């Protein structure tokens, strides 16, 4: 499936959808979908990263993320379209679903 860079109004709609489905913490930062997830401890944070990493590998779409103890900061962008694509929205939804099971 070929992906294209989403238009600003499509990104805004996606942000509204993500924030109404989960916690309202998804933002647009430097052209990337961004969220900081907080977990009870390192084990939960690492479990979240493991599940998301397996999904990302399967989809061949890898997040930019940073982990310190129970916090995971995620930034999503599609480098081959130089912006946000449906791949990013899909991965964000998977991350929300995974975090909510925590």
TrEMBL record:
Q: Keyword Lyase: yes or no? A: yes
Q: Which UniProt keywords apply?
A: Lyase
Q: Which reaction does it catalyse?
A: (4aS,6R)-4a-hydroxy-L-erythro-5,6,7,8-tetrahydrobiopterin = (6R)-L-erythro-6,7-dihydrobiopterin + H2O
Query: Which InterPro entries does the entry mention?
Result: PCD_sf (IPR036428), Pterin_deHydtase (IPR001533)
Q: What is its EC number?
A: 4.2.1.96
Q: Does the keyword Zinc-finger apply?
A: no
What is the enzyme's main class? lyase
HAMAP family per the record?
Pterin_4_alpha (MF_00434)
What the record says about family reads:
Belongs to the pterin-4-alpha-carbinolamine dehydratase family.
Q: Which PANTHER family match?
A: PTERIN-4-ALPHA-CARBINOLAMINE DEHYDRATASE
What is the designated name of this protein? Answer: Putative pterin-4-alpha-carbinolamine dehydratase
What organism, scientifically named, is this protein from? Marinomonas pontica
């Amino acid at each position: 499936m070929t992906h294209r860079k989403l238009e600003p109004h499509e990104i805004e709609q996606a942000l509204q959808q993500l924030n109404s489905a989960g916690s309202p913490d998804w933002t647009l930062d430097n052209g990337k979908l961004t969220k900081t997830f907080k977990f009870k401890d390192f084990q939960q944070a690492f479990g979240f990263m493991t599940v998301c990493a397996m999904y990302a590998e399967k989809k061949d779409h890898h997040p930019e993320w940073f982990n310190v103890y129970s916090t995971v900061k995620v930034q999503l962008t599609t480098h081959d379209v130089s912006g946000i694509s449906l791949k990013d929205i899909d991965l964000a939804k998977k991350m929300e679903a995974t975090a909510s099971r925590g």
